[in-house]
UniProtKB/TrEMBL annotation:
InterPro entries assigned: Homing_endonucl (IPR027434), LAGLIDADG_dom (IPR004860), LAGLIDADG_Endonuclease (IPR051289)
The name this protein goes by in its record: Homing endonuclease LAGLIDADG domain-containing protein
Key word Transmembrane present: no
Keyword Electron transport attached: no
Gene of this entry: orf270
Residues covered by the Homing endonuclease LAGLIDADG domain: 2-89, 146-236
A molecular-function term among this protein's GO annotations: endonuclease activity
Keywords associated with the record: Mitochondrion
Gene Ontology CC entries for this record: mitochondrion
Length: 270
C-alpha cells in the first residue's frame, strides 16, 4: 500500500527537523488505515471530511518498525528513492558527531534532492527489463504487495459501451513507474498494453476484456482488508449474477458511485 499512497517526508519548521511516514486514503477507506495501525502496533490515524491518514513521526519507531520492513521488502516504485532519503536524514539527525549547522547543511541538501529522470527502483535490478513473462517477477512483485497496491490505487468499475450495454472494467494509473503496471499486467493476464496518456501525463493499464476481468476476480477473492474489498465484492458479485443485464448493472454502478461519494451504509452488500 505504501507504493500506492505512502509518503516519506523531511520537514523543517521553526528551526527544527522532523521525519514522517504517512499513508493517506479516501475517508471511506479508513478501516484499511486502522488495520495497518493494528498490525504495526504503532502510529496514529487522523481524519477530516475527505481523507484519513496513518502516520508515524517518532524517529525511534521509524527505526525499529518501518526501516526493517522496507529494508527487507524494498519498494517497487520511485517511492524507494524517497524512503532512502528519509533513512539518510534519520542517520544525519542521530549523528552526535555533527554540529547543528552541519546537520542543517546535509538535511537541506537531502530535502531538495530531486528524483532522477527515468528513475527505477533498485528492486528491479533482480530481473531483466523489459519484462517478458511472469517468471521475470519472481521474488519481486508478490501477491501481498499487489493486493496492497490495488487497495490504494486500483479501480473496479462499470462502464457503458453503448445505450444497451454495460461492462465490467479494471484500471490503474501511475505518473511514473510504468514497469510496475507492466508487471501487474503480466500477473493478472491482461492483454491490453500499458499506455502513456500525454493529456494527463500518466501511464494507464485498463481493461474491460471478459477473460481479464475473470482473472482479476479470481486473483483478488478474499484478499483485501479495507473498503476496497467491499467495492471489489459488489463489482465481482455483479459480474457473476448480472453480466449482460443492463438494468441490474446500472443499479450496481450507482451503488458503487454512492459508496465512494456518500459513505453509504453498505452492510447489505458485504
Amino acid at each position: 500500500m505504501t507504493d500506492g499512497d505512502g509518503t516519506f517526508s523531511i520537514v523543517y519548521q521553526n528551526g527544527k527537523w522532523s521525519l514522517a511516514y504517512k499513508i493517506a486514503l479516501s475517508r471511506y477507506n479508513l478501516r484499511a488505515l486502522f488495520y495497518i495501525k493494528k498490525q504495526l502496533g504503532v502510529g496514529s490515524v487522523t481524519k477530516d471530511n475527505t481523507k484519513g491518514q496513518f502516520f508515524i513521526r517518532d524517529r525511534k519507531k521509524l527505526e525499529s518498525v518501518i526501516f526493517p520492513i522496507f529494508d527487507k521488502y524494498p519498494l517497487l516504485t520511485s517511492k524507494q528513492f524517497n524512503y532512502l532519503k528519509l533513512k539518510q536524514a534519520f542517520y544525519v539527525l542521530e549523528d552526535s558527531s555533527l554540529t547543528k549547522d552541519e546537520k542543517d547543511k546535509k538535511l537541506f541538501a537531502l530535502k531538495t534532492q530531486s528524483i532522477p529522470d527515468n528513475y527505477i527502483s533498485p528492486s528491479w535490478n533482480k530481473t531483466q527489463l523489459p519484462l517478458k513473462s511472469i517468471s521475470d517477477l519472481t521474488g519481486i512483485m508478490t501477491k501481498p504487495w499487489l493486493v496492497g497496491f490495488i487497495e490504494a490505487e486500483g479501480s473496479f468499475y462499470l462502464v457503458s459501451k453503448d445505450s444497451t450495454r454495460i461492462v465490467h472494467g479494471f484500471g490503474i494509473t501511475q505518473k511514473l513507474d510504468s514497469v510496475v503496471l507492466e508487471g501487474i499486467r503480466l500477473i493478472l493476464h491482461i492483454s491490453t498494453a500499458v499506455n502513456f496518456k500525454s493529456k494527463y501525463n500518466h501511464y494507464i493499464l485498463d481493461t474491460t476484456n471478459s477473460r481479464a476481468v475473470e482473472n482479476i476476480i479470481q486473483y483478488f477473492r478474499n484478499t483485501m482488508k479495507g473498503m476496497k474489498s467491499v467495492e471489489y465484492r459488489i463489482w465481482a458479485r455483479s459480474y457473476g449474477k448480472y453480466k449482460g443485464d443492463y438494468l441490474k448493472l446500472s443499479e450496481t454502478r450507482n451503488i458503487l458511485r454512492k459508496l465512494k461519494t456518500k459513505l453509504l451504509e453498505i452492510s447489505d452488500f458485504s
